[in-house]
Amino acid sequence: MVGYSEISAIRLGYGLGPGITAPASAAELIAEIAASAPDSRSISMEQIEALRLEYVDIVRKTRESGGADRSAIQAARKKSTLMARVADQTRLARAVGGGVGFGERLVQFWADHFTVTGGSNAFNAAMASALVEEAIRPHLTGSFADMMYAAETHPRMLTYLNQVRSFGPHSVAARKRPDKNLGLNENLAREMIELHSLGVDADYTQKDVRQLAKLLTGLTYNFRDQRRFRPTMAEPGPETVLGHSYGVSRWGSIRDVRAVIEDLARHPATANHIARKLAVHFVADDPPQNLVERLAVIFRETEGNLSALYDELARAPELTGHFRAKVRQPFDFVVAALRAVGVGHDEIMALPPQQLIARVIRPMTAMGQKWQMPRGPDGWPEAAEAWATPQGLAARIDWSTRQLPKLVGPLPDPRKMLQDCLADTASEPLAWAVPKAETALEGLGVVLGSADFNRR
């Protein structure tokens, strides 16, 4: 029988390690989530926009001077790249350090639910991190509706899904510039319904998607301007989405956007969709239906109170019944491995940026999970087959034996490490094999390459 401390650390958190005290009860585990709230380490859009304005000004002045000296542009680019890297480093350090990490696992879960990518430049990468800090962490224990509104209206979501280029066909802007062929973009509307709320199999139509897209016109972003809604881009209303009418004022408003998001967030289909996603992520690829139904009921009865969902999940007997039913994704694996060998928050923050890239970020690409670059707006896959591939597992072992040792002092004794990271959950074959390792490095590979460690 696996104890609650091991369940909370391995199934719900980022794993055990030397010096990590796992909660003895669900109440202790839930209390730990508060540590994942935003703090002074969080990157903000205000910081990003200030740096971007500075960069644009430098580029303008360089061009005006004939462009002979481009060193100032290069320096500004390095500054923006460093800003994005520090944000990555901070997020990794928060996952590695402190407590069991249920809060940080939830941050990762919701960041994947409201997927954006880092894109092709440092500003977009920083904005993707800012979405996590500004839309996910502040609402981690609040209502799903508040988190959804914050995520859907965040600048990185608006740019990633091309909402900034969505114009109402009969908007003032479209009518003034007919030669520009300004039109409707349905990306955000579709993902709001299919991925972020009701789910792809829910009862909605293409007409609902298009009506929502029209309602969202006017919702936009420009780093030079703090306004998030431009009435001149908006399609004259009203629009009807899932039988409800919005945008009754002539040009719509941000209040209409808020209203439709709140209705989507509290829709019964959303309760089912979110309940299943949580159960799949934390319990099993094919989750027990009883757990899904219990979570869905709580979601409906509390109108999406996330703390209530976590409480049910943390107490679920299915966590024990389906132990090791999930394969750790590469980020999960890397964080758990760092914790297993005693690397903590301060050691990660002390890494020079280039070492962070070479020894942590880039190896995750080889494992199949390129940092901040999921293949689509549906985020990373959950199924074991996506991660337990020959190439992916080989990359994990390669990282464990070539890069991880460079991040830690003397390697731990494998027998102690086995006890530190898996406690009494290690299987008999693994417990037999580890003491047979001839070197600490070999023992490290045996533990981190095992099915016991790669599953939670």
The major β-sheet equals: 2 strands, antiparallel
Tell me, briefly, the overall form. globular
What is the share of helical residues? 55-70%
Averaging pLDDT over every residue, what do you get? 95
Question: Oligomeric status of the shown chains?
Answer: single chain
Query: How many strands in all?
Result: 2
Low-confidence stretches: none
Q: Helix tally?
A: 24
DSSP strand (E) fraction?
A: under 5%
Radius of gyration: 24 Å
Order of helices and strands: HHHHHHHHHHHEEHHHHHHHHHHHHH
What is the topology, as strand order, of the major beta sheet? 1-2
Gap from first CA to last CA: 15 Å
Number of domains: 2
InterPro entries: DUF1800
Structural account:
- By secondary structure, the protein is mainly α.
- It is 55% helix and 1% strand.
- The protein has a two-stranded antiparallel ribbon with strand order 1-2.
- A hairpin with a 2-residue loop joins strand 1 and strand 2 (244-246).
- Helix 14 (289-301) runs antiparallel to helix 15 and helix 21 (414-422) packs parallel to helix 23 (440-448).
- It is globular and about 75 Å long.
- The two termini are 15 Å apart.
- The model has no long low-confidence stretch (mean pLDDT 95).
Condensed summary:
With 456 residues, the protein is mostly helical. It has two domains: 1-142 and 267-455, no CATH class; 158-266, no CATH class.
Defining traits:
2 domains, 456 residues, two-stranded antiparallel ribbon, 1% strand
How is the secondary structure organized here?
Elements: H1 4-12, H2 26-32, H3 45-64, H4 71-96, H5 102-113, H6 122-136, H7 144-152, H8 155-160, H9 172-176, H10 187-194, H11 206-216, E1 239-241, E2 244-246, H12 254-265, H13 268-282, H14 289-301, H15 306-315, H16 318-321, H17 330-340, H18 345-349, H19 353-366, H20 390-402, H21 414-422, H22 428-433, H23 440-448, H24 451-454
Antiparallel strand pairs: 1-2
Helix pairs in contact: 2-15, 3-4, 4-6, 6-7, 7-12, 10-11, 13-14, 14-15, 17-21, 19-20, 20-23, 21-23
Pfam family, one: DUF1800
InterPro entries: DUF1800 (IPR014917)
